[in-house]
Design brief:
Blueprint: H1 2-16, H2 20-37, H3 40-56, H4 60-76, H5 80-103
C-alpha cells in the first residue's frame, strides 16, 4: 500500500508538471496494486488522477471511463456527494464533446452584408 500511495503522489507531481504520459503510467501502476489489495480509499484517488490527467489531455472517453469507475467506488463506500461530483464531471465532459461537435460545421462562416435598398 505504501508503494501505491507513493506512486499516486509522484503521479500527481508529474501531472502538475504536465508530464502526462508519466503521470498516467504511475497512476495506472498504483491502480493495479490498490485493486489487488482492495484498498478503495487510495484506489479511488488513483482513478481520479487517471480521469483528470486524461481529461486535461482531451482524452474524453478515457476520462469518462475512469470517472465512472470512481463514482461506483464512491457509491459503494457511501460517499454519495463525491459520487455526484464525479458524475457532474462526466456530464461536463459530455457537454464539451457535444458543444464541439455542434459548433463545428466544417465550413468557414461568411458574414452576409446587409442588403441595401436604394430607390
Amino acid at each position: 500500500r505504501e508503494r501505491a500511495s507513493t506512486l499516486c503522489c509522484l503521479a500527481h507531481v508529474h501531472q502538475v508538471r504536465r508530464e502526462y504520459d508519466e503521470a498516467i503510467k504511475l497512476y495506472s501502476e498504483a491502480t493495479r496494486i490498490l485493486t489487488d489489495l482492495g484498498d478503495k480509499h487510495w484506489g479511488v484517488i488513483a482513478l481520479l488522477g487517471l480521469a483528470e490527467t486524461n481529461r486535461t489531455q482531451g482524452h474524453h472517453n478515457e476520462a469518462i471511463l475512469f470517472y465512472t469507475k470512481a463514482s461506483k467506488v464512491f457509491e459503494e463506500t457511501g460517499e454519495s456527494k463525491r459520487a455526484a461530483d464525479t458524475l457532474k464531471n462526466i456530464a461536463d465532459i459530455r457537454k464539451t464533446i457535444q458543444g464541439a461537435s455542434e459548433g463545428f460545421t466544417g465550413e468557414a462562416e461568411v458574414e452576409k452584408e446587409p442588403s441595401s435598398t436604394s430607390q
